[in-house]
UniProtKB/TrEMBL annotation:
Keywords, alphabetical: Cell inner membrane, Cell membrane, Electron transport, Heme, Hydrogen ion transport, Ion transport, Iron, Membrane, Metal-binding, Oxidoreductase, Repeat, Respiratory chain, Transmembrane, Transmembrane helix, Transport
Name of the protein in its database record: Cbb3-type cytochrome c oxidase subunit
Protein's job: C-type cytochrome. Part of the cbb3-type cytochrome c oxidase complex.
Cofactor entry: heme c
Self-association and partners: Component of the cbb3-type cytochrome c oxidase.
GO biological process, one term: proton transmembrane transport
Alphabetical list of InterPro entries matching this protein: CcoP_N (IPR032858), CcoP_N_sf (IPR038414), Cyt_c-like_dom (IPR009056), Cyt_c-like_dom_sf (IPR036909), Cyt_C_IC (IPR008168), Cyt_c_oxidase_cbb3_su3 (IPR004678), Cytochrome_c_Oxidase_Subunit (IPR050597)
Annotated GO CC locations: plasma membrane
Transmembrane residue ranges: 7-26, 60-79
Organism: Salinimonas iocasae
Length: 319
């Protein structure tokens, strides 16, 4: 923080405290010269004004808060770039990545700095890490039916995954899959779900406009829509079937996809980016490049194991 802002904040903060002190002194001054408890000579509607100063306990409390505020500002950071005598910090500032955060935590430990957030993280790790370590020893498919693990996994999901997949995990058009059905791009076993969370996924649906042209894309769209039982122009679909050979390398000759590549099944009428004619045309014309981030560094493998169990449980409810 620059010296200008340090001075600006200090003047306003200290000025407010000093102003409160003088305001209190002003309120305690008997400007009327009337003895305490005597009438001020004013009466309205049967109510007489009496010279009653602030109660002693109230006055003392005001003084205490003023003194407390000054002591706090000496001990803790609160006046711009001044760090306080105790060199206390709420958190490591100006962090832009997980790697920087870890390095800042280590630097604080090495230098003996007290960082409140780091202390709270350490306490949480001491308390909860053994719980996650115990959960990690149970297979995902079995852990998915442990009520406590599922509740914890749901909280972690809401904190880290709901932004894309929704709080109900049903996803949304735009490349965010529904996690409550049994349609999986890369496989829905416990191991595959963990693999997705640990490593992330990078989709690569190429654009076909240059290769096929607008007419060719229209034909392939008709054929692709027909695979899921949609009514289309059959002549276009027949021509599109021949062109589909280049798509079969990923989606298979039958269009049922390939989980090893993350190529979706085109026959089930479940669409990641929307199944309208316009949406499918956009996909073929411009391609798609969805990204599922890796959570290995964010959560760690033990927490990922619990999240995977929660996700697995969504499509494997007990009968």
């Amino acid at each position: 923080m620059s010296m200008f802002w340090t001075i600006w904040i200090s003047v306003i903060t200290l000025g407010s405290i000093i102003g409160c002190f003088f305001l209190l002194r002003w309120c305690l001054t008997n400007f009327a010269g009337v003895e305490e408890g005597k009438s001020m000579g004013h009466q309205f509607d049967g109510i007489e004004e009496v010279n009653n100063p602030l109660p002693k306990w109230w006055t003392i409390l005001f003084y205490v808060t003023i003194v407390f505020g000054l002591i706090y500002l000496v001990l803790y950071p609160g006046l711009g770039s001044y760090k306080g005598l105790w060199d206390w910090k709420s958190s490591n500032q100006n962090i832009q990545s997980l790697e920087e955060s870890r390095q800042a935590r280590q630097d604080a430990i090495d230098s003996g700095d007290y960082v409140q957030y780091d202390v709270e993280l350490a306490k949480a790790a001491e308390r909860f890490d053994p719980i996650f370590e115990a959960f990690a020893k149970v297979p995902v498919e079995e852990l998915a039916f442990d009520d406590d693990a599922v509740k914890i996994g749901r909280r972690l999901f809401l904190q880290n995954c709901a932004q894309c997949h929704g709080s109900d995990a049903r996803g949304q058009n735009g490349g965010f899959p529904n996690l409550t059905d049994e349609d999986w791009l890369y496989g829905g076993s416990g191991a595959k779900i963990k693999e997705t969370l640990i490593n992330g996924r990078q989709a690569a649906m190429p654009a076909w406009l240059d290769a096929m042209g607008e007419q060719g894309i229209e034909e392939v769209v008709a054929y692709v829509l027909s695979l899921s039982g949609r009514k289309v122009d059959q002549q276009l679909a027949d021509k599109g079937e021949a062109r589909f050979a280049v798509c079969a390398a990923c989606h298979g000759q039958d269009g049922k996809g390939n989980q090893a590549l993350g190529a979706p099944n085109l026959t089930d009428n479940i669409w990641l980016y929307g199944g309208s004619k316009r949406a499918v045309t956009e996909t073929l014309t411009y391609g798609r490049n969805g990204v599922m981030p890796s959570f290995k560094q964010t959560l760690g493998e033990d927490k990922i194991h619990v999240v995977a169990a929660y996700v697995y449980s969504l499509s494997h409810q007990p009968e």
